[in-house]
Amino acid sequence: MSVVCVLLPRFELAVAAGGHATLLREPAALAPLPGGTQAVGEVSAAAEAFGIRRGMQLGEALARCPRLALVPPDPAGVAEAWEALLGRLEGIGALVAPERPGLASFEADGLRGLHGGALAGILAAVRRALHRPARVGAGPTAFCALAAATRARVVRPEVVGGGEDQARAYLSGLSVRLLALRARTAALPAPLERLGLRTLGELAQLSRAAVADRFGAPGLHAHDLASGRDERLTPRLPAERLRESLELPEAASGPALEHALGLLVDRLVARRERRGRTLRAVALSATLVEGGTWRERVTFREPLAAPERMRLALALRLGLLPAPAESLRLEVESFGPPVTDQRPLLDEAAGAREARLRRAVGQARALAGADAALRVVEVQSDSRVPERRAMLAPFEGEE
User: Fold this and answer.
1) In whole angstroms, what is the distance from residue 20 CA to residue 224 CA?
2) What whole-number distance in Å separates Cα of residue 324 and Cα of residue 251?
3) What is the mean pLDDT of residues 310-327?
4) Would you place residue 398 in the very low, low, confident or very high pLDDT band (cuts 50, 70, 90)?
5) CA-based, 20 to 30 A from 127: which of 71, 87, 93, 383?
6) Beta 390-394 vs 325-338: how paired, if at all?
7) DSSP state, 292?
8) Three-class SS of residue 53?
9) Which residues of 258-287 are buried (b: 16+ CB within 10 A; e: fewer)?
10) Above 90 in pLDDT, residue 349?
11) Angstrom distance (rounded) from CA 85 to CA 132
12) CATH 3.30.1490.100-classified regions of the chain
């Protein structure tokens, strides 16, 4: 099995900077969101030379480099650009398994017949599809391909052939800091280095029992990765996305913002492309007046099709907006099954009938007095005298 890994370093920073290469050559970092944790995001290579790392406190980063340029984060733009790149990879026939923006992998064996029968043809197709500089690596496992991508150059992919033994031999001399690129093992490099383990080969030589006793399940996963073993990829299903956006008045907030959200929900539910399906997850994003964007992914507890329930679930997220917004956007990320619960329709029909009945009673009373509308009340249903079984009483309805 061959796995191809595509790595775009500093993808979030490049998108937020608008592709300005001159900015990325200077010390630059993603600024913290207003009201959030005061820590910088991705940093440029020039900023790394000053010892600045992602997650460093803003004060410490500015103390190390006073001329550090802070770029407003753009999570909505990052999601849109990353989705476009994944679509291009899927356009060459790849079943892509994205891990985070800027990092994705796919199995290459099924694509050989489409691209000349050799791995080199697949790698060339990847570079043509991306239309931007990227590091591409290939290996027997996803982690080995990722390690190869970190050592690749933009003009020269890195390829590791063979199986588990070749993957273990290739990884043995590499730093344990590669484990930070995986979410499950991101916290392990620092304690491993404190224990004197510098390379993945040294980690693979330890017994699984000793690693499990010290680091638990993440340690066992790291030991498997260092030994040339990895889990099979889980490719994503090609996404079908619907989106609605709305420009807001200057510094819209409070009821105006909730009204705009209600309009977006109504528009999205009314789209013909929904085809009666429920919504499982949506993304609410905004363009901030102060620059940058804000994005929040919302997964409903159950698939929804009722606009009222969606508005209730999404209105709470508006309180997380870090600054006034100049535009609001709502996008469907995943659909649920078609609508099968008809109770909201029945409730709506019952409410409409009750409202019409109350209006009719009010009109009858206005024309003929308070006794114009009466109702039957059961009194003694088992009585032998029919007149005692029920009586008339005023209808307690209001206009």
Assistant:
1) 40
2) 5
3) 85
4) very low
5) 71
6) unpaired
7) S
8) coil
9) eebbbebbebbbeeeebeebbbbebbbbbb
10) no
11) 10
12) 243-338
DSSP string, 260-273: HHHHHHHHHHH-GG
For the domain covering 243-338, report its CATH number. 3.30.1490.100
Return the sign of the alpha-carbon dihedral for residues 377, 381, 385, 386: positive
The runs of H, that is alpha helices, within 198-254 are 200-204, 208-226
pLDDT at site 399: 40
CATH superfamily of 1-7+75-237: 5' to 3' exonuclease, C-terminal subdomain (1.10.150.20)
Contact call for residues 306 and 90 (beta carbons, < 8 A): no
Residues of the chain with CATH 1.10.150.20: 1-7+75-237
Summarize pLDDT for 87-138 with one digit per residue, the tens: 899 888 889 999 889 999 999 888 888 888 888 899 989 988 888 888 999 9
- The arithmetic mean of pLDDT across residues 141-165, rounded, is 90
Cα distance between residue 376 and residue 303, in whole Å: 42
Within 8 A by CB and 6+ apart from 159, the residues are 119, 123, 137, 138, 139, 148
Please give the model's pTM, rounded to 2 decimal places: 0.71
SS3 content of the chain, % helix, strand, coil (to 5): 45, 25, 30
Can you tell me the distance from the alpha carbon of 146 to that of 5, in angstroms, rounded to the nearest whole number? 6
Strand order in the sheet with 243-252: 243-252, 325-338, 277-288, 293-304
